[in-house]
Amino acid sequence: MSAQFGRLITAMVTPMHEDGTVDIELTGVLAKALIDAGTESIVSTGSTGEAAALTDEETISVWKATKDAVGPNVAVIAGSTSNNHRRSIELTREAEKIGLDGILLTAPAYSKPPQSGLIKHFTSIAESTLLPCMLYNIPGRAAINISTETILELANISNIVGVKEASNDMAQIGQLIDRSPEGFLVWSGNDTDTLMVMAMGGYGVVSVAGHIVSPQIKRQIDASLAGKTDEAAGIHHELMPLIDALFIESNPIPVKYACAKAGISVGEARLPLMPLSEGAVEILDRELDRHSLTLG
Q1: pLDDT tier at 2, thresholds 50, 70, 90
Q2: What per-residue confidence (pLDDT) applies to 1?
Q3: Is 120 annotated as catalytic?
């Protein structure tokens, strides 16, 4: 039986050596540190984990190291899907074979398929595995929105259990929460949106900021669940400048820098991404210095 997806899920970066190769040992160290700091589940090799820059062999090695580090009671969700349909199925089956707990069904970038293509693509991948699957709607990277009606149709597939919603469209997210079948969960896909998504009845967040401020995010989620709106809003407002700084340049460039500041140096992102620029360093340092960081 797979571990359950948590309310606070961190989309984990992939650590790299100085020569740009994947640091498998540090991958396990980082995964364990995230759980110790309050993260409940991990997305491995999503967009924050530089999935597009990894070989299949590297991807599988990262999954294994992550799962070995966190153990059977913590869900590791595989970023196994792309616009390559056959490869998505092959990697999904491999993720199940090696003992991962879930699959991230990411909107395919570059291809810009019609909604009917999205339905067939995701349905076929979900049917290839017994693992629970989380849809991932991210128009900013995929150049296409998974529509409300498409998500609701896919929600009828037994092992598609929820969606990571990063559309920034509060009307769409609200409709999904209101109209979804029982048991289908909606996670905020943006740290900026967690307060609003939770207020509308969302389940939690798949976070980038969870690398360094997971206790604060957990307190915000708990306050929302307890109906303590003022407390949740206060934490949101306190974290917002830091969250904005974590996206001052393309993710995961800033959060990789932040991890080093917080105690675990995870290396730089692979080309075509670059190290954090000097101007961005100054802005991010200022925000990092204002917070209690929990990694490492």
Answers
A1: low
A2: 44
A3: no
